[in-house]
Specification:
This protein is of the alpha/beta class. It is built from 16 helices and 14 strands. The two termini are 16 Å apart.
């Protein structure tokens, strides 16, 4: 019997690969037992129990970026979180801690180090986050989703994919997916998504180009984000929704996509061979532009800066690509060559190699 503690949360980018690994662990052996570690108020508090796994909680402690009262309290509260994780490790006799980054991971890494429990790190982004840079210093193994990741001693394993995305590799039904959204089964389809929060420039540019898509015989599935002020709309060749809880069907319906370059999105599109133009999020530490480096070099996608994405760019670049079936097939083949469909199994194999050594 092996007891696993998987630490991650805060965003779907941490939670989905964590849950994919959890599924692989329990599928491998009935003797394996999995607990997850997250923070109060994170998305994991909903997603993890829905998947049937027990969620252990610690306080959410962002790393302080300025000197204030929170920064003065942070060391004490962080150590309290570490001690809470140590108690979990003892109570459940954890054999290995697997961290995916996010607020829960740093306390988990230090707690494991204190308790002599092995640590494995998985980094989803090409540019690693603070918690995983810390954990990688003493981890027994480090797995990365992108070949150009700069974490030391890292092994490329790819991204553990959501089960519904993996199912697309064998059971994809494009016609049924299009019918689900009220789209025509026989019309070239463009998927537009800026992530759950939406993307103002992407949304405005696509709306400005609606007449161009229509004239080119391209129908559009436009996911504007649930915080957008844009209202849902449906015509014969344009469907706009705020939020999509069946992204697997949205992907299956599409011939091409316009998207941000989040790690999970890039990996999912590549695995199923969906060609796309990626528009890296221009705010923050700019990690998204690094997520497309390998895929772009292989000829499996296009990319454009947010500032350069416009209705004019759509007219000059995207519509000619989407209208060229031979170009789409070439992009799709190149994407699949880079994509990884068994990242969960590769990561579990890496973890088992750690557990097999004394």
């Amino acid at each position: 019997m092996t007891n696993f503690l998987l630490a991650g949360g805060g965003t779907a980018g941490h939670i989905n690969p964590m849950l994919s690994l959890a599924d692989a662990i329990v599928a491998e052996s009935d003797a394996n037992r999995v607990w997850t570690l997250g923070t109060k108020g994170g998305m994991e508090s909903k997603l993890v129990p829905e998947r049937g796994y027990e969620l252990l909680l610690i306080e959410r402690l962002p790393f302080p970026r300025r000197l204030n009262s929170y920064a003065l309290r942070f060391p004490r509260e962080f150590l309290n979180a570490v001690r809470a994780v140590q108690n979990y490790l003892r109570l459940h006799q954890i054999d290995v801690v697997v961290g995916f980054g996010g607020f829960a991971s740093a306390p988990a890494y230090l707690a494991a180090k204190r308790e002599g429990v092995k640590v494995v790190v998985h980094e989803a982004n090409a540019l690693p986050g603070l918690a995983n840079r810390y954990g990688a210093r003493f981890a027994a193994a480090v797995g990365v989703a992108f070949r150009n990741s700069k974490l030391p001693n890292a092994q490329f394993v790819g991204m553990p994919l959501r089960r519904e995305i993996k199912e697309l590799l064998t059971t994809s039904d494009r016609d049924a997916a299009r019918r689900h959204f009220g789209l025509d089964e026989n019309t070239t389809t463009l998927l537009v998504t800026g992530g759950s929060l939406g993307a103002k420039r992407i949304n405005e540019s696509v709306i400005g180009a609606r007449h161009l898509f229509s004239a080119a015989g391209i129908q559009v599935l436009h996911i504007v984000g649930d915080r957008s002020d844009l209202k849902p709309e449906s015509t014969n060749d344009y469907v706009r929704i705020a939020y999509c809880d069946r992204m697997d069907l949205a992907i299956a319906a599409a011939d091409f996509a316009i998207s941000r370059a989040g790690a999970s999105t890039v990996c999912e599109f590549a695995a199923v061979g969906l060609p796309a133009v990626f528009i890296p999020y221009p705010v923050g530490n700019g990690e998204q532009k690094f997520n497309v480096v390998d895929l772009l070099a292989a000829g499996g996608c296009l990319t454009v800066a947010d500032a350069d994405f416009s209705t004019e760019y759509i007219a000059s670049t995207i519509i000619p690509v989407v209208s060229d079936s031979r170009r789409l097939k070439k992009l799709s083949r190149a994407a699949k060559q880079i994509g990884v469909s068994d990242g969960d199994e590769r990561l579990l194999k890496l973890i088992n190699s750690v557990l097999s050594t004394k």
